[in-house]
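G., the chain you wanted modeled:
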Amino acid sequence: MGNGESRSFDAIVIGGGPAGAATAISCARRGLRALVVEAGMAPRRRPGETLHPGVEVIFESLGVNPRIRQAGFARHAGHEISRKGVVSFVPYGADERGPWRGFQALREQLDGILIERAIEAGARVLRPARALDPLLDRGRVSGLRTTGGEFASAFVVDASGSSHWLQRRLGIPILEASGPLTARYGWRAAEATLHENDVPRFSFENGGWSWRARVGPTVEAWLSLRLEGRPDGTPENARDVTWRITRPCAGDGYFLAGDAAFVLDPASSHGVLKALMSGMLVASAIAKCKAGSARERDVRAGYCAWMERWFCADARALIELYSEVDPMPSWLDSAREAVRYISSRPSGVNGLQKTPAGVLSHLGIPPEAG
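Predicted structure as tokens:
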């Protein structure tokens, strides 16, 4: 970023992953000045390649569908579940247009498509650069100090992921709803021949589960999770997926998007979709605040309530899934209580906007969440 360029923005976004890119794209398309602060010069390899069918509507909204089609990601109409030696196919569903189909995408390729779209839309990207400290003005977040300098902003959006950067800097309360959970992941060589029935497989095994899916002609991704205790040793490719939610996920001058707002384990299957949708919703919230069409307090409350409903809907689905595991996780009852607590004490009550058509029906999220 040159010396002559502005250092004042409507939104500064920490992180250039799906949540950050979606925020930046959506802000820029609304005429807002957006800056993305990204630590890496290029997208990093990371898990999260299985994308729910609802993401197709989001790709269209973000204007990346042509690039997604050019990327040639594999598609699938459902996945297999293996339980006690019995394998069954679970379709995503269908409508008048035909079966809903998900994507198998290499995340670094997907992330690259999204961040390039943000630049094309008019957002600025500062990379490589790290966020150091939020700037505060009488308790309100008013900008960001980075390794590339200081920048003022009407809002700061933490889209940096499950490390909860802004939550830790501001001391925002975070509620854990499950026992400690650590997912392991990696990639391995696969047969060069792709078969029509080569769909993702979810297998219950050894007090937990594993997942495998083809993400390329000769590459298979895998993921595993034990529901009790930590994995043996200290594997390099491991991630803390303990269920947790930051409350509130919006406040004076800031919003938390994607995993920065809440984390559930990958069996929820909505990680990338949540990142994209929350980023788009944050941009809508910022636009409303900047235009003065709604009170900022109400907009923040609506965003928090929307995210909490999503967290609770997915957590309930996981609780139902894991209640069939033998032995059942010892923390499942406390997780139920945590979800009841969050549901009965929402951070907000107002809605913000209509969710793109068809998405919520794919997700099993209550209609009022949109």
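Confidence is low (pLDDT under 50) at residues 349-370.

Shout if anything looks off.
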